[in-house]
Write a sequence for this structure.
């Protein structure tokens, strides 16, 4: 396997030598993301200790000029429609307790600042890491006495987009010292490097070994998750992280785990850590 | 998503005779009518088929839209302004619904 990998790198090197840089548009472009000409986004940074790569790079660098521009203008970014919808949900009373998110937490823009950048987080009561979706559902059940959202319900995606957006520009940093986060991180790492499906691919095959290269007509990124939920032009809608995980695993032609299952929660912990230091970009725009 | 919601971006001020850039975006699924649901039945077409922008009652930009236009259509265009006034933006849906919004502009 290592041998194949080296040949691939060598081949890519030969191509670079012989072709113009435009022909290898799959690699990360050397540009800066500044949203609305004022908010500087960290899209490249030194990798955290123990990371297999030297530098972590946001998926933004791997997209076309047109897609990158969409994200750089918050008015054009279609994901902002969902941020607005999320704000409505934040302030809407639901459930038997007669409460909205705002009833307890107050103004979302104030309360939520930085929160999205630190998830997933250890939840001692549940004895597992919680992402924002699980946290919201727990809050809905326990405090609002409302129905928890079903996976990928439109309102769930909009609310999580809104919550995460309040941390836009802030660097991703999760706390691995709490509870059993280390064990979950380790479990996620195992999943990341385990080959699966009829195509026998691990996450690492594409996103670690071959990022910057083409997979058929598409560009492989490092697979960082700092922009989730992401507006994907392909779906013309917000795409949640666990939807994306499942899509990727499906494409290896494997059985894919349920959303928020232990396996995918561990993967979320690990993959989020891999993007440590990148700014939250939610709602990022991707192909 | 909930009911289509328009967003527009218009400068607050401009000088006489200036060409201003207007940006519009509306949340809408733009269902093309060419897709099928899980049971194999066609999903009926539902798109915004017409957009108009008027300034003080005079049309400055309008267009028809067809099924190939993507969801949440974004339109950007320019208008030359001589006097202060109000831009009125109108989107017409296949089902007959009309979504409108207005923005004022001061010409100095």
């Amino acid at each position: 396997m290592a041998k194949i990998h080296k040949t691939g790198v060598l081949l890519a090197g030969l191509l670079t030598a012989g072709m113009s840089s435009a022909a290898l548009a799959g690699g990360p472009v050397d540009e800066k993301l500044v949203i609305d000409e004022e908010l500087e986004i960290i899209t490249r940074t030194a990798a955290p200790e123990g990371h297999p790569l030297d530098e972590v790079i946001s998926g933004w660098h791997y997209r076309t000029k047109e897609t990158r521009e969409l994200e750089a203008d918050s008015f054009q970014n279609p994901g902002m429609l969902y941020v607005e919808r999320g704000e409505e949900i934040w302030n809407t009373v639901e459930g038997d307790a007669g409460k909205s998110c705002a009833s307890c937490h107050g103004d979302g823009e104030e309360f939520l600042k930085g929160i999205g950048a630190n998830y997933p987080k250890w939840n001692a009561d549940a004895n597992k890491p919680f992402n924002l979706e699980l946290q919201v559902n727990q809050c809905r059940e326990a405090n609002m006495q409302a129905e928890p959202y079903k996976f990928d319900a439109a309102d769930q995606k909009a609310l999580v987009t809104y919550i995460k957006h309040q941390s836009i520009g802030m660097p991703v940093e999760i706390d691995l010292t709490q509870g059993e986060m280390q064990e979950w991180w380790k479990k996620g790492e195992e999943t990341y490097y385990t080959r699966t499906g009829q195509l026998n691919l691990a996450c690492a095959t594409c996103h670690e070994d071959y990022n910057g290269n083409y997979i058929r007509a598409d560009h492989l990124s490092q697979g960082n998750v700092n922009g989730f939920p992401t507006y994907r032009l392909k779906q013309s809608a917000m795409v949640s992280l666990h939807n994306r995980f499942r899509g990727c695993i499906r494409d290896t032609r494997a059985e894919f785990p349920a959303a928020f299952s232990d396996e995918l929660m561990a993967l979320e912990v690990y993959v989020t850590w891999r993007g440590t230091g990148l700014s939250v970009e939610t709602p990022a725009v991707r192909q | 998503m909930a009911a289509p919601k328009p967003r527009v971006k218009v400068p607050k001020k401009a000088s006489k005779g200036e060409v201003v850039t207007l940006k519009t975006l509306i949340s809408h699924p733009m269902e093309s009518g060419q897709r099928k649901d899980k049971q194999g039945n066609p999903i009926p077409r539902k798109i915004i088929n017409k957009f108009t922008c008027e300034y003080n009652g005079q049309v400055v930009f309008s267009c028809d839209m067809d099924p190939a236009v993507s969801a949440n259509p974004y339109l950007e265009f320019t208008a030359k302004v001589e006097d202060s006034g109000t831009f009125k933006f109108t989107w017409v849906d296949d089902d007959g619904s009309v979504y409108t919004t207005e923005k004022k502009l001061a010409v100095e």
